[in-house]
Amino acid sequence: MAHAHGHGDGRGRGHGPGPVGGAGHASSGTGDAADHRRRLAIAFGITATLLVAQAVGAVLTGSLALLVDTAHMLTDAGGLLLALTAAQLVLRPASNRRTWGFRRAEVLAALAQAAVLLAVGVYVLVEGVRRLLAPPEVPSTELLVFGVIGLVGNLVALLVLAGRRSASFNLRAAFLEVLNDALGSVAVIVAAIVIATTGWYRADAVAGLVIGALILPRALRLLVETASVLLESTPPGLDLDEVRAALLDMDHVEGVHDVHASLIASGLPVISAHVVVQEGCFADGHAPRILDDLQRCVAERFALPVTHSTFQLETPEHARHEPGHHD
């Protein structure tokens, strides 16, 4: 028995429920992917329209808050376009070269969005401090008008994305970006009201800093989560110590090692392990039943169900001299 993680040969290894070879993985959930794409397309259309309107407003008013919100919206429009492209790529079938298809495209797109948001947030903070020291005059009426336009548009986009915002990294990233835009529009409106009623022009810079403060924590969180997927960290909701204990507790299992778990994309966790079983299980034909029990265990017993699992069944003798053995 070779030391490997892969699909089964009918004796010592096996894969969890789903088509062999991965072809079914990219096509599963195609209806969801199409719905994601439709929602992203609507949100992109709204954001692109608002981007043009706010760019005009930023030029007319010279407002930092509106300029920053426009720059933020530009990154959002680009991020939504990336997300829309990734949602399209997800629909492409798997192949022998790309056994998971383009499922990771959504993770890469979300990572890019997070990186751009982080850069925008840093710029906002730097420019906001500079304008606090030397605040320019900003026309409050125009600022208020463009702030209201931005808020209404963002609320519509939020309604489009809200229903499925937890369904994928892409939709979550898009929802956070549009939410930040909506909060940014609120900050612009508040700044316009303060300037109109008190003449305190630093309110514009304060609004810009508030927008930056809203951007940075969410960008960092998304950056960490997507980087964790690319590093193939154990998915949240799956404790490998609990998995090992559950597998060891099963009949005829004498040892478990080389346990690996990762997340290919949203909703697609995978796990593999080498499981040492009693020698007689291969002789009396009991091994296939053990394999079924192992797959059922990881699919049903934990907070995060894993329906794609790969187990290599080994004899105690093989486990003792297996190269690269680790827990």
From TrEMBL:
Classification via Pfam families: Cation_efflux, ZT_dimer
InterPro entries per the UniProt record, alphabetical: Cation_efflux (IPR002524), Cation_efflux_CTD (IPR027470), Cation_efflux_CTD_sf (IPR036837), Cation_efflux_TM (IPR058533), Cation_efflux_TMD_sf (IPR027469), CDF/SLC30A (IPR050681)
Membrane topology, record value: Multi-pass membrane protein
Ranges annotated as biased composition (Basic and acidic residues): 1-12
Superkingdom of the source species: Bacteria
Disordered: annotated span: 1-32
Membrane-crossing residue ranges in chain numbering: 40-65, 77-95, 107-124, 144-162, 174-199
Domain Cation efflux protein transmembrane as annotated: residue spans: 41-231
Annotated coiled-coil segments of the chain: none
GO cellular component: plasma membrane
Alphabetized UniProt keyword annotations: Ion transport, Membrane, Transmembrane, Transmembrane helix, Transport
Subcellular localization, as worded in the UniProt entry: Membrane
Gly residues bias locations: 15-24
GO MF entry, a single one: zinc ion transmembrane transporter activity
Chief location of this protein within or outside the cell: membrane
Domain Cation efflux protein cytoplasmic: 235-314
Family affiliation: Belongs to the cation diffusion facilitator (CDF) transporter (TC 2.A.4) family. SLC30A subfamily.
Protein name: Cobalt-zinc-cadmium efflux system protein
Organism taxonomic ancestry: Bacteria, Bacillati, Actinomycetota, Actinomycetes, Micrococcales
